[in-house]
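Why do we care about 3D structure at all? Because function follows from shape, and shape follows, mostly, from sequence. That is the central idea of this module. The next example makes it concrete: a single protein chain, its amino acid sequence, and then its structure expressed as tokens.
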Amino acid sequence: MTKEILTGLGEECGVFGAYDFDGDDVASYIYYGLFALQHRGQESAGISVTDTDGESKNVMYHKDTGLVNEVFNKNTLNSLKGNLGVGHVRYSTAGGVGRENAQPFVIHYQKGILSMAHNGNLTNASQLKEELSQTGAIFQTNTDSEVIAYLIAKERLTSETVEEAVKSATQKLAGAFSLVVGSPSKLIGARDPLGFRPLCIGRKDNTLFLSSESAALDTIGAEFIRDVKPGEIVTIVDNEIYSDRICPPVAEARCIFEYIYFARTDSCIDGQSVYVSRTKAGAILAKNAPVEADLVVGVPESGLAAAIGYSEESGIPYGMAFYKNSYVGRTFIKPKQNERTSSVQAKLNVIREVVKGKRIVMVDDSIVRGTTIKNIVKMLKNAGALEVHVRVSSPPFKFPCYYGTDVPTSENLVACNNSIEEIRQGINADSLSFLGLEDLQELCPGLEFCDACFTGNHRGGVPKEEVDMKACSSEKIVF
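And the structure:
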């Protein structure tokens, strides 16, 4: 029986926060910040703001399903009056799709109001939710992010400050989290001790920012100050940044796929340029998997830099083989297989004059389930390419991810039970090579990273409900 092969990778989310100490509204800053982070989540978006000088310090917010420019318009932005705010774009790696799951979460409780946005996935969310439910908590969503919000609110009842409550709450969390929390007078950022998901700090005049990626700071003209360190809590108040730690430093585990695929090419994470990482990956592929060809092309967007690296190292000319329709979302957003396939065709079109009669090296960032790259190889050959040699700037995916990446169960991962030769035949490529596990360290020299999706070494733990599941299906995926 032929298994359905889904396409693409699901991303995590994007978070953004702003605090203007001159008292000006920050909603427009957050809007453009979220717009720059749109690649991290395309299902919903939201902004919450508060006026720190107002007597009531009430929180105003707007959130809904859709892209940033669909959820917000001039009128909604103008209605969000406040100089401290939190924003979020979401892709549902945990919890369903729907307006009720959109963030930021705004919690009204005995001590006041909190707004929170979360990027990542917890591995102990079900246990925490059960414990909170037994003390009377009533949950409106099925997301682990709401669990964090309630836990912070609960800890705040016995903490002297909101940052102490965030610290106490995060000490109870396992897995991946980068948080932006807004209180009536403080903006707080927290990053899990392993550093799975990125978070950084920026400044523009008397406004301080927290952002998932540095590229969003560039978009609003802010200066990048530094990354929030793994295990660090930063509190922004009185135009100053105060630092504390969730726990003593531990061995870190940044998501390697931020550098390979998720982050924008123009971002810098923990001192490492994403562009440089990707060009290095392409150069390594050119050294380890050379082939005689006429042209190197990349699959937009994250495959382009790797293709440039392959071209520069191999001496084979680089060309633009695809026109990308920027108004079509990433393929994994579509819920059904036939919709995903049509999305690939609507998003990318081959420029026939570039590839006709040529031997092509096509560089892409990953092969997860196999359908997308099979369609692209077919498109190139239909356009007249004589040969298509596929080079992949990551190792084969064999294991699920529990830390905020929508990598499915292993039974749907094409590399789990298929050899590289079987995958090559399945996608109809003339040759196929992946980046080696031993090459990953060259992408981010000096940084510790998580490679669980390639090795099964889940350093952030595995959800209790997944422990007894088989790591891999015994069936091969049939193309």
